[in-house]
Amino acid sequence: MTTLSTPDFLRYWGKTNKSENNKNDPYHLLAFHCLDVAACGYFIVKNNIFNINNMLQKCGIADRDGANWIAWLFATHDIGKFARGFQKFALFPDAPLVPPVSNVSAIERHDTLGFYLWNKIFENWCNNSNDFIPGIEQETRIKFETALTIWMSVSTGHHGIPPDTLKNGSSLAFNTEDIAAATHYLEALNQLFPFTLVQEWQKKAGKKNLRQQSWFFAGVMTLADWIGSDETHFPLISSPMPLKDYWPLACEKAQRAILTLPSLSERSLYQGHQTLFPFIKTLTPLQQQATMLDISAAGPQLIIMEDVTGAGKTEAAMILVHRLISASKGKGLYVGLPTMATANAMYTRLAKAYRALFAEEARPSLVLAHGGREMSASFRQSVWQRDEGSAENYTQGDASALAECHAWFADSRKKALLAEVGVGTLDQLLMAVMPFRHQSLRLLGIQEKILLLDEVHAYDGYMVKLLEGLLRFHAAQGGSAIILSATLPAALREKLLNAFNDGAGFAAPEIGEEADYPWLSHLSSAGLTEQPLTTRPEVQRTVTINWLQTRSHALDIIYQVVESGGCICWIRNTVDEAMEVFQQLLNEGKIPAQNILLFHSRFAFADRMAIEEKTLNWFGKDALVSERRGKVLIATQVVEQSLDLDFDWMISDLAPIDLLIQRAGRLQRHTRNAQGECKNTLPDERHAPILHILAPEWQPHAEQDWLGEELRGTGFVYPDHACLWRTQALLRASGEIRMPENARMLVDGVYEQKIAAPENLQSIADMAFGKILSQRSVAAQNLLQRDKGYDREASDFFWDKDREFSTRLGEESIDVYLAWLDENNVLQPIVSEGEFCWEQSRVSVRRSWWQKQCGAFTCPKDEALELFRKKQHRPIAHVILVTPAGESPYYSKRFGLTGRAKSE
Fold first, then answer.
1. Residue 654 and residue 693 in contact, taking contact as beta carbons nearer than 8 Å
2. Is the model more confident about 376 or about 737?
3. Residues near 557 by Cβ (< 8 Å), separated by ≥ 6?
4. Which listed CATH number (3.40.50.450, 3.40.50.2300, 3.40.50.880, 3.40.50.300) goes with 541-700+709-718?
5. Which stretches of 19-141 are DSSP H helices?
6. pLDDT at residue 414, rounded to an integer
7. DSSP output for 836-883
8. 801 falls in which pLDDT band (50, 70, 90)?
9. On the CB side of 544, how many CA atoms lie within 13 Å of its CA?
10. Are 567 and 648 in contact (CB under 8 A)?
């Protein structure tokens, strides 16, 4: 029951009881919830989690004031709930809370309401009507406006996006009593957490520094709010008590709750490469250089390694990671790759080595981060277990922190960035520097991590621009990065070096005009050093180029290889072209059907994994000779990277030079004897490697239709036809791919346009280049600008609409699920056993492909589809009907999703 002594700010609720058992109080007082979150922030400072004390010192906050300042700031995060318009969302007629009023309405979210309320209170403070921050003379108060506005954007923007400062309807949510109660609350907070405003915050340099550091504190604020909203640690309390009495209770609970954060593992000291890789007896030249590179310079470092496929780049990078962590230049690792397949492969490799980065008794977490991660059993065992509880939802668009808290711990893609070691796609990193909700948490997660970015050449102009933004942000946070590539064009290397250098604030580096190959670039506060490397003899080889003009010629080679007992792969540039060749081989019947395999992206997840496993069994390093003999793989770009495959012979459609080099890396990848058995020493006893390339007849003055009918799809997939023409021209001139000697000449010759393309192709190339510039422009608009601080104005795009932008500009994909109808007319997935049956029954296709082909499919009725979408939380997914065995005229486990009837 309310007494006269109960402060007005203890008459507002902050959280409500939505649980079914009703064991807790009906609501949690707003001031108490704010102190719960403040206590979480307080102990993050006291325990120096995320190295927050160093960040506070950068902002001019002395050690003794740090915990108090964070506690005060975090205790203000929900002041928007003092709005009587917000209080109307839950009514407790018999409770001693403020009564509802009819002339108020909360049409804005409570974070935006809080920012508005702060400005009102600050305005009153400047007019000397209150003294909630004592010790500041009235005439100097206005000078702190910018600094305090930055801090309050962090506090009130605790739901993953900054508050909307342009909304005009916030005043409708408050009456004068609400503003007075909030003011009294802030005055009470100052009694609990006395602090002194930093004089430097009045100056231009101090304000700029606060904006730059605000991203870090926004991440900590959001995480503290989520932890402080967990009712398992902070049960609801409806009975008022003085704040000084509640604060010790909040502290006691916060100390326990903070333990839910993953604790840092003690690092292990680097004592040689064999701690990580005991199987490596002799280091490759690149790996040897990784053990000797001078990493003693202070501050962030960028290392770019370019070497031949098979040169041991990943192991060299991990040696550097271990050395950097051992030297206290990083506390964890995130490995970013271009695709889920490459991430899966790296996850498997890293699982065997990552523990060696840390002390023997430590239990560091390794997390996989991408859309198909739940289907990895080893990954699922690493997921934190959380009590899902119940989640509040006051209004649509104003979700509670509890709901987001549970979403956070269940969403391992975000969790991967807080885990000590994460493996996933580059997209998870790029989202940290784009206006996605909770991007500040991603930045927080990678702050003290070493970023290992592999296959960097695989990205288009849009993603490269985003990657530049990531490197700029990461270097500014003091983080180091290692970039790996087999074929990195000179212009791309320069962009990456300049972006990192800009973020780190180093002096402008002098980048050499001509780079050798293999090549190592090392950027630090000591400057840029670049050096050539040798590579190991096993990967020094020459691949002869042989040109094919017709499909029949390519098929003749396949038949000859099979007859001789060899194995061969033909990499086609489109799924449909791969299907056509596969169908023709089956129809002609010269090779047993069980010896031919089709591998592309348009299979259901479970079927694709089965095909990937079979591919490795046939063509992997440890495949039995009997398994390899007479086998044929017809594939698309899915085998270009990630999979450790070894073919005796290879055919490829014409593609850009860097991709042909990647494909050639799967041709006689491992040393074998004449019978096809792996051996440890040179020479390879098979025939000299030959890459057969299906390409149009050479045309020095090629017209726009030069690719012809057979490679029409190639022209669509690779729209820069001048790039294709230059690739053909240079390979015709050299007649070979000699690694590593002519790699730089080939890659830079194509991408630096060292030779002029025919005029008709150059116009197409100009359009493709214009598209790249457009992509980079869009990416620049999407990127957050660090110097603008945690503010909606930090990006050209509106922050709150995640679907309006993406980490990739490629055509939108849609999910198609394969299902059948049971006797009760209920949709059932084609995968019936194990977990995640629906996800394993999913195929991802381009939207335009679906729109063109969907008429060939049998689909469920609209009601069944809508029910499926609602149940699976897939609002734009589609379902096509097949048999329970996963077969139909348009889908099979052998062909995948064709979009048309097929015959075998």
1. yes
2. 737
3. 548, 568, 649, 651, 692
4. 3.40.50.300
5. 30-46, 52-58, 63-74, 84-87, 110-126, 138-141
6. 53
7. -HHHHTEEEEEHHHHHHHGGGS----HHHHHHHHHHHT-TT-EEEE--
8. low
9. 6
10. yes
